[in-house]
Amino acid sequence: MLIDSYNRVHDYLRISLTDNCNLRCFYCMPDEKIACLPNKHLMQPDEIDHIAGLFVKLGVKKIRLTGGEPLVRKGAGEIIRQLGNYPVELTMTTNGIRLHEFADDLQQAGMRSINISLDTLEQEKFLFLTKRDNFQQVYKNIHLMAQLGMRVKVNVVAMKGVNDNEISQFIALTKELPLHIRFIEFMPFTGNHWDHEKVIGLQEILDIAAHDYTFEPIRHKKHDTAKNFQVTGHAGTFAVISTMTKPFCGDCNRMRLTADGKMKNCLFSKTETDLLGALRKGEDLEPLIRECIWTKAAERGGQFVTDFAHTDPESIQNRTMIAIGG
Fold this sequence. Notes:
The chain has 10 helices and 12 strands. By secondary structure, the protein is an alpha/beta fold. Helix 1 runs parallel beside helix 2 (76-83). The chain has one domain: Alpha-Beta Barrel (TIM Barrel), CATH 3.20.20.70. It is globular, with a radius of gyration of 19 Å. The protein has a 12-stranded mixed beta sheet with strand order 7-8-9-6-5-4-3-2-1-10-11-12.
């Protein structure tokens, strides 16, 4: 069992397979010509398996694969099937472009849920936001995953002046399809041009939704990052991940492993622990993992003030989002 100094048990590991992506969303990969890590610096499949196996022995019950875009990683299918052998809930966050190519791998690995990132329902705006013309493929794959019986969550980074006019349209998707739309408050990372005025907070999103829908809150479960709601008569749900306006750090159970094998005890942590380097030197990883968890800050990496409007994004010590892992 992995416990921090605030007595929080950590049993959820997010593993980034790559810092590369086939989209160029400004809030994640701001530089079109960003240099990705060479393959030798990435965790190799056997190293991912070794480290994941150790975390499972230490009490991990859930593993999420992330990127960049995990499905552009060479050998992604092999890695997915390999991790499917562990007695954990295996899931993934993806931009959805290549999902149809890996449907068999996901099913063989026993994956039952998947998060798909999509910030707009407008094809032209998708091209503007991502610099790629892949909207139709993503939209088709959302439906494909639902048809295969997956629990599909659609992640929407909500931003004023960008997609705030589409909140009701996203919720409308839940009427006939059992989709779970999740609006994510815009968060600051190195180089993503964060501005507190672009943040659409929890209450603002609910106020917008209330203009068109009648909905009720769904009972909160332990470790939930999202505040979930059900529109009357809809097959699916919608939710808000309120990192900025109403953080959920009190019962956090999450750990992150970057594509180059650095462990982060929080999305916003300043420090990292080099597990891959230690593994390649033949060192014992367990003490490093336990120390990393024990030093976890109480809230948001210890970097944010309570009033996020006074947060200086330039003062935050962190990687870009794509280098951390979504």
